Amino acid sequence: MPASYYGLEEADRDEGLMRDVVLGMHNEERESLGLSPLAWDSALAADAARYARQMAQTNIFRHSARASRAVPSGENLWMGSRGLYDYEVMVGSFLDEKRLFRRSGKLPDLSVTGRWEDVGHYTQIIWRGTRKVGCALAEGQSYDYLVCRYYPAGNVFGRNPLDGEDGAQS
Question: Which residue numbers delimit the SCP domain (predicted)?
Fold first, then answer.
C-alpha cells in the first residue's frame, strides 16, 4: 500500500536527490575501505529505469537476465511499500549487509551466515574493480522498485571484493 494509505507523508523523491544519495552513501563506504569512488553513469541509470518500470508494471521482483541488460553490469534490487521509504533507507539496506561480511575468503564464502546472498548487495558496492553506478526507481501500484546497475560487475566467484589493484576490472 502507498504511504498515504497509512496516513504517512510520501518520502522525498527526485532523480537528482537519488543520484546524490546513492553516490554519497556508496562512496562513503568505499572511501572507508580505501577504494576509489564510483561515478554516476546515465546509460546504466537508463537501463536500470527500464527494468524498474518492468518490475513495477508486472509486480514481479527478481533479478534481470544478464543478457537483457543493455550494458553488461552487476545489479542490486530493492522493493518496499510505495512512497514509504527514502533513498537513504533503500541504500542503507544494502550497506547493512556489512555486519554479515567476512573480509577473508572468496566468493561465495564471504558471509558469516554461510550464504553469500546475505552480503551480495554490499560486496557489489565495495567491489574494487567496479567504477560506475546508475540507479532508478519506479512506482508500482503498491510497491517501489529500485534498480542499481554497476560496471564492471562485481561478485565474481572465486574472488574477494577487496583484492586486486584499484582500477582493475573484475
Answer: 17-158
The pairing of strands 143-151 and 74-81 is antiparallel
Does the residue 160 lie in any domain? Answer: no
Q: What is the pTM of this model?
A: 0.90
pLDDT digits (tens, 9 = 90+) for 16-52: 999 999 999 999 999 999 999 999 999 999 999 999 9
Distance (Å, rounded) from C-alpha 12 to C-alpha 28? 21
Tally the residues of the chain.
170
| CATH number of the domain encompassing residue 89 | 3.40.33.10
**Domain membership flag for residue 168:** no
* 130 within 8 A of 152, measured Cβ to Cβ: yes
Domain count, the chain: 1
pLDDT tens digit sequence for 120-168: 999 999 999 999 999 999 999 999 999 999 999 999 999 999 997 654 4
For residue 167, being part of any structural domain is answered with: no
CA distances 14 to 6, 33, 153, 159, Å, are: 22, 29, 26, 36
Please indicate, yes or no, if residue 158 is contained in any of the structural domains.
Answer: no
Which residues have a Cβ under 8 Å from the Cβ of 25 and sit 6 or more positions away? Answer: 88, 91, 92, 95
